[in-house]
Design brief:
- The chain is an all-alpha fold and about 100 residues long.
- The chain has one domain.
- It has six helices and no strands.
- Helix 5 crosses helix 6.
- It is globular and about 35 Å long.
């Protein structure tokens, strides 16, 4: 399972995996999942790319992580997590469209 597949698994049953509906708990879960076996290729870089995409999308260029940016934008942990899934889908769609035009 890679990071995108994990996020898709978590989106519909988030409460089953994290106790508190919080962007920070969500990130802690993903980090824990990744560090359980750091030799497995899980494509965690997609979240770094998502962070760069968020910076550009919201015109916020600083050294915050993706979860901190979402918290800054949406003002609380719950709203940040709810909007994470919406924005991550938009990011994936944009990435897919860009990769298709790169193939031309």
């Amino acid at each position: 399972m890679n990071t995108i597949e994990l996020i898709n698994t978590l989106r519909n049953r988030t409460a089953m995996y994290i106790q508190k509906h919080s962007i920070f708990c969500f990130r802690a879960f993903i980090n824990g999942w990744h560090f359980r076996n750091i030799e497995e290729d899980v494509n965690l870089e997609v979240l770094n790319d998502f962070c760069l995409w968020l910076q550009k999308y919201y015109n916020i260029y600083d050294n915050r992580s993706w979860d901190e940016l979402l918290f800054l934008i949406f003002k609380n942990e719950k709203n940040a997590l709810d909007n994470f899934f919406i924005l991550f889908d938009k990011f994936i769609t944009c990435s897919d469209e860009n990769s298709k035009t790169d193939d031309l």
